[in-house]
Amino acid sequence: MNNIKYSYMDHWEIHTAAGLTAPGCRRTYLERYLKELRALGYVGLDTFAARLPYYGRLVAGKNGTPVDFENYLKDLGFERLVSMFLDFIGNNPAERIADPACHDQIFNKFRAACEMAKGTGIDTFIVMPACQYFYTDPVTEDHIKHTADFWNRTGKMMLEDYGIHAACHHEFWCGLRDKWAIDLFYELTDPKYVWYFCDTAQHVIAGVDPVALYEQLHDRTWGFHLKDTKNTDPKAYRIPPDAECMAEDVERWFYEANGEGLCDFPALYRAIKKYGYSGWISSEHDKAEFEGKSFADCTAQGVWYIKHVLDPILKEG
Amino acid sequence: MAMKWAYSINAWNITANSARKQHNERNFKTIVAGGLDCIQMKIATYRMKPLGRPLIISQVYGGVKEFDEYLKNIGIKQIAGWDYDPTAPYAEENCDGRDPTDPAQHEGIVDALVQFAEFLKTVGGDNFCVRPMGALWRAGEVTDEKLKAVAECWNKVGRMSAQYGVKVILDPDFLCAANSLHAIDVLMANTDKENVFLAIDTAALALVGIDPVEVYEKYADRVAMLRLEQVFTTDELNERAQPFAEDILSTGGERGLSRWFWEMGAPEGEGLVDFPKLISAAKNGGFDGWCVVCTTQSEDPSASVLFNEWYVENVLKKI
């Protein structure tokens, strides 16, 4: 029996008189955004490390904290903050995860992020486990070993000192994108401290089957990003400075899960049912403002698909 | 019987968001995803309104029953009824608009609505929510004689539609000549209690300085629909009486208002409508009609629908 809760990854933007903006720039926008998420049934929010302090100030004044923000969420009917996303993409040469000389600095930044989240319900950092492919190229076994060493150390600190799980989210443009590299990384990391986070679209773009990978790593899986894509990527992942934005033939990579793209969500849910996954599943669909759509419209389509197509799979037979 | 909840598809009202089948499918799914499962439709004209008439619906969806089945598969369990403005032009009826104050035009209004009543009987809907008469600025003096002619018009429609299980619900909108306490009194006094009812159009009443709760309490036994939408201001300059008053909806009038109509609980201002008070009064009055949530103006209709649905679920349904 699966016990699934749904959270929303905090990419939302809205059209305002002042232009397209994230709702966190004004209290009324934030209130609208969060109430609209609640209308759709979300009980968790996944956000970004850089946004969390700002949200605290927005709801509770200049001394507001992330805890104040979480209390505001609870007043609206959310259960809690679920996760923060952090990445070190490699543009800072002192923060290259595959380089052992950089590890102390990045480790300390993760500790600072844990301190910031302290007191909230956040029990997960969704992390990009390697820097951009561009900064990791060539991806060697040594690079992967150094990366695994970093996560064994950092994941242990996060979990033992703060109760926060390091959940690795494999962007199609990061150094750990290919199946052989992902396999080696999980062989070299400690299952107690380094967790797998299944982002359906990122894997499909990179040519990896997310359902098969989840089945392989189901006992180390600490969450999902349900998102879809309409493209795979044989080459753009190498393009600096940002493969996602620089790809010449793909303007928008990510879509809400609604059955129209390349990801096989029913197959994923059959696997989730098979292995009895219980925990959070997060909806993610950045760039939803493209093509004249709105985040509200796109998010609603995704929720409709979850309620009418995916959730019934968990209840079958 | 408990009160029933629906969303008006007026939320999506431009070619860009409602002219294509796939657009409307997204819109239906948005309503369902946010928690409501009934819709109020709107009688319309022309090819860009694929949900406006039974014939066009059949062209798009293969038939009326097929359309109803299609909606049920999406999660829309019931079409509540049709909104209807008799004064609007309908090309399919070779009609430039009909005037309910003119008895000679009543037969045309009754005849025009037969196909829509048949549609509602097929899909299980139960109401025509009608604009009783035209705009104030076009109406000239709103005399009791004119109002009695309007009442008789809707009595005729009500006798026809009752054969299909369909009520007539009078809904004086903001600009309507019948949007006053006196006009409502005359209309209620001269219409059949069995067939013709009243909608409490919260925004419309509040915009002309009338408390919707007072009107509900006065006519509790005749009210069959609450139309729920918020406003932050009244028409204090009486601009609705000025020529081409329809323009103020988009221009914002002399004050340049960004919007006249807002979502329930909108945080941008002090709403004039006390929705919890209205719903409390309705519950106490045994109201078992439709609560239709409306979005007349919005920067993002889908967001407004979800915001209103949050308010329904977390505020109104908890009363």
Total beta-strand segments of chain A: 10
If strands are numbered along the chain, what order do they take across the biggest sheet of chain B?
A: 1-2-3-4-5-6-7-8
- The CATH architecture category of chain A equals Alpha-Beta Barrel
Assembly category: heterodimer
Unreliable residue runs of chain A: none
Strand order of the largest sheet of chain A: 1-4-5-6-7-8-9-10
At the fourth CATH level, what is the homologous superfamily of chain B? Divalent-metal-dependent TIM barrel enzymes
The first-level CATH class of chain A is given as: Alpha Beta
* Rg for CA atoms of chain A: 19 Å
Distance between the termini of chain A: 11 Å
In terms of structural class, how would the helical and strand content of chain A be classed?
alpha/beta
Give the amount of beta strand of chain B, in percent. Answer: 5-15%
Mean pLDDT of chain B equals: 96
What is the CATH architecture assignment of chain B?
Answer: Alpha-Beta Barrel
Main sheet specs of chain B:
8 strands, parallel, barrel
How many beta-strand elements of chain B?
Answer: 8
The global form of chain B is: globular
Low-confidence stretches of chain B: none
Query: What's the name of the CATH homologous superfamily of chain A?
Result: Divalent-metal-dependent TIM barrel enzymes
Helix content of chain B: 40-55%
State the share of residues found in helices of chain A, binned by percent. 40-55%
